[in-house]
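To whoever is covering the structure queue this week,

Two jobs came back overnight. Logging them here so there's a record in the thread.

Job A:
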Amino acid sequence: MNNRPLVSIITVNYNQSVVTGELLLSLRAITYPNYEIIVVDNGSVENPDHLKESFPEIYLVKTGENLGFAGGNNFGVRASKGKYLMFLNNDTEVLPGFLEPLVEMMEDDSTIGMVSPKIKYFKNPDIVQYAGFTKMNPYTIRNSGVGYLQPDNSVFDNISQTEFIHGAAMMVPRALFERVGHMPEIYFLYYEEYDWCEMFKRAGYKICYHPGSIVLHKESVTTGVESPLKTYYINRSRLIFTRRNFSGFQLIISLLFQTIISFPKNSLVFLLKGEFKNMIAYWRAYLWNITHLKLRL
C-alpha cells in the first residue's frame, strides 16, 4: 500500500512545448510512487494542447496571459493537491530517484521550509551549476553560487543549510506556502525566489540543499549574450529586492551604492560597448523604481 505523501510537480511552459515535452518524458521514469504533474501554459502564442495529447497523465492549465515566473508557478499551485510542491523549470530533466531524498528530508524535519537538489548542466553533467548559495552582498545585491561551474566531486555531496534555493528546482511544503505566502509576483522575472527565501527565513524556517537529488538544467554553461529584456528585469528586480528586504541605514547605504557607484559605472560600460539598447533598458529599470516608490507586496 502506498503511503507516500502526494507531490505536485509544477512546471511553467511559455512557447517551449518541445522543451517542456522533454522534461515530461524524463518524469515518466521517476521512481517516486505518488505524484501529479501540473503544466502551466503561461499565455503561449503556440497552442500547447498537444502536450496533453502526448502526455495524458498531466494536468494542463492555462493562464491566458504571461504572468511571469512567480505568477505562473502560483497559478499552478491553485490547481494542485499535493502535500509538497515541487517547482521545476521546463528546461530541466530529472534523474529517476530525484524526489525521494527531498520528500524524506521534509518529512523528517518540519523546520525546513525549502530545499533544492544538486543542479548540474544537462550538456555538461560533470559540471555543477548549484550546490547552494552564499549570502546576498548588502551593497551590490549579488551573491555567489556554491560549486558554480566547478567539476562535481565529493565536496558538494554534503546536505547543508544554505541561504537560497535555486528557482530551477525547489520543493516547498504546501502548508508553508499557505502560511508564509506565495512567491512574490511583483518581480515578473529574476530575484523572486531570493525574496521568497527571505520570507521563509523571517518566518523561522531553514533553506536547505540536498545533493542526493539531482536535476539537470539546460541553461548554457557559457554566459549568454545580454539582452535588453534581461538587463531591464534583472536590474529592476535587484532594486525591488533591496527595497523589500532592507531597512534603515542598510537600505540607505545599499541604494546609495547602487545609485552613486553602480549606475554610472554600468551606464559607462554599456556606452563604451555601444550597447545603447541595454543602456536604455538599464535606465528604464531605475526609472521604474523611481516612479513606483510605494511597492505592492
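Job B:
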Amino acid sequence: MTPGKKIFKKMKKIVGICFKNQGKVYDFDSGAFVLRKGDPVIVETKQGLGFGTVVVPPAPYDEKKSSRPLKKVFRLANESDFTQQKRDENIQERAHKFCQKCIDELGLKMNLFSVEKSFNMNKLTFYFTSEGRVDFRQLVKKLVRELNSRVEMRQMGIRNQAKMCGGVGRCGREICCSAFMEKFDPVSIRMAKEQCLSLNPTKISGQCGRLMCCLTFEYDTYKEYKKGFPKKGKFVTAPGGRGKVVRHNIIGRKVAVRYENGNEAEVGLGDIKYEKKEPARKKEPARRKEPMRKKDTKKKRHRGKNA
C-alpha cells in the first residue's frame, strides 16, 4: 500500500420496504440501487422474490451492529412486474371466494382470513384460524383441481390473524403487532393491576380478544416506580390525620388516603408516615408431651388353687 493513501470501504445502506398498504415495514439492503420513497422494487424473501414499495429512504448502517444479515433488493420493478402483481391479486381474490365456498360445503369449522400467492412461484398459501385440529384433505384436493397450483394450508393463532390483517387500536393508532412487533410476549392481568388500569375486559383487550400487547411496554417501569409505595389497605398518618390507602398515583408519586371521617385526599409520598408495627409477642415453647405407655393387652393367667 502506498504511504498516505487511504482505502475507503463502501458503506452499506438500509431501506424500508412494505409489501401491503399500511403493512409492516421490513428492512433490506439497498445495494447499489439509488432508491427513493415510493419506488416499486423486487426483493429477495424466504418464499422467493416479492413485490414491494419503498416507504423509508435508504440510510447508512453498520453491518457489525446488525443482529442478522439483511436480504437484498433484487432489482427495480418494471411494467411486466406490475402486470403480474395485478394478475396475482385477481387469483388471490378468486381463490379466497372458492375456498370459502368449499369450506361451507364441507362443513369445516375454520375461519379463512387471507390468501397469498408467491410472486415467482405457482403456489397459494391459505391462512385460517380454528379452535381445534381440522381435517382439510378433501378441501386441498378441490383447491388443487380448481386452481391448478400448489396449495399450502397454514393454521394461525388469533393474535397472528390480527397481525396479518392489521387495524386501528382504541388509542387511534395502528395496532402494535401489525406496525412493528416481531414476536408476541406473554401478557397477564397482573400487568394491568400494576399499572392501575381498569380490569374491564372490553377496555384492556385488543382486536384479537386477548389482552393488549402494549400492557408489557411499561410494565417494568411501573414496577420500578411502585417501589416505596404503601400497600392498598394499609393505615398511614397524613397531614389530614390517620387514614387508609385506597389508590396509587404512580406517575405523580402520590397516594389517595381515605380518612376516618370519610373524606379522601391525594398525598405525596414524602408527606405520609407509616405506622410502626407492634412487636410480635414471643410464643412460649410448647411442652413436649410424654409418649403414652402401651397397655399390656396380654391376659394374665391365674393359676388355680389346689383343692
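Note for Job B: The mean pLDDT is 82.

Please reply-all if you pick these up so we don't duplicate work.
Q.
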